[in-house]
Amino acid sequence: MSRESILVIEHDKDTLELIRYNLTQHNFVVACAVTGEEALTKLSVGSFDLIIMNTMLPGLDGMEICRLLKNNKNTAHIPVIMLSEKGDDIDVVLGFELGADDYVTKPFSPRVLLSRIKAILRRNRPKLQDDESIIKNRYITIDPSRHEVRVKGQLINLTHNEFSLLLFLALRPGWVFSREQIINSVKGTDYPVTGRSVDVQVVGLRKKLGESGYMIQTLRGMGYRFEGIIHKHENS
């Protein structure tokens, strides 16, 4: 298996070196950038499996970089971990709204960061299991092997979190899941995400699904469910 490549965007040299050292010790290929502009240049010529970036960069900040990446079809699939001195709910929610896959506050433990990185990369690796069958109904088609969703034949650009949430619910139509169950099933039991972030993901997902967004239903005080008949088809 080829070594996975990570781009680290961090203007603080000590933090950058700490991350670079620990990642290389765990056999990752690491590229570094100290500004958003430098990062975008490296992204235009290189391929990366994951991005770690400080939200408070000089010039083009991390939030803006994340927005640009998630709105670009060539980079939207790359998972992003935000690093920040800010740990307020509003900052965390904003990061997830922009498409970040994780949000780590400083100071952080390198072991914890490595654990988050490995968890995200595991989720992004191709899986050989029965959930790889294409699932579809009259309006929505979900292809797990290609990480694609189409609504009435039109390809929809979803973040990794949005895709995982939709797939989780669509595979279990009619079942009601609490926010905690969704977090544990989609992210893993050790993933420190608030219920509020699930709400944010649902709002964004419904918006992208357009008229078909109604299929993700809210049950007040309980959680969410996918309402609609789903059929599985072997992926060819």
Explain what the structure shows.
The protein is an alpha/beta fold and 236 residues long. The protein folds into 2 domains: 5-124, Rossmann fold, CATH 3.40.50; 130-233, Arc Repressor Mutant, subunit A (Orthogonal Bundle). The chain is 38% helix and 21% strand. It has 8 helices and 12 strands. It has helices at 13-25, 36-45, 62-70, 89-97, 110-124, 160-170, 179-186, 195-209; strands at 5-9, 29-33, 50-54, 80-84, 102-105, 134-136, 140-143, 148-151, 154-156, 216-219, 223-226, 231-233. The strands form 3 sheets. Strands 2-1-3-4-5 form a 5-stranded parallel sheet, with helices on both faces. A hairpin with a 4-residue loop joins strand 7 and strand 8. Helix 4 runs parallel beside helix 8 (195-209) and helix 6 (160-170) packs across helix 8 (195-209). The protein is globular. It starts with a strand and ends with a strand. The relative contact order is 0.11. Residues 127-131 have low confidence and may be disordered.
Summarize the structure.
With 236 residues, the chain is α/β, with parallel strands linked by helices. The protein folds into 2 domains: 5-124, Rossmann fold (3-Layer(aba) Sandwich); 130-233, Winged helix-like DNA-binding domain superfamily/Winged helix DNA-binding domain (Arc Repressor Mutant, subunit A, Orthogonal Bundle). 38% of the residues lie in helices and 21% in strands.
At the first level of CATH, the class of the largest domain is Alpha Beta
Radius of gyration: 18 Å
Give the total of beta strands.
Answer: 12
- The tally of helices reads 8
Name of the CATH architecture of the largest domain = 3-Layer(aba) Sandwich
Could you say what the CATH topology of the largest domain is called?
Rossmann fold
Low-confidence stretches: 127-131
Please state roughly what percent of the residues sit in beta strands, choosing from under 5%, 5-15%, 15-25%, 25-35%, 35-45% or over 45%.
Answer: 15-25%
SSE string: EHEHEHEHEHEEEEHHHEEE
The helix content, as a percent range, equals 25-40%
Strand order of the largest sheet: 2-1-3-4-5
What global shape is seen?
Answer: globular
The first-to-last residue Cα distance is 24 Å
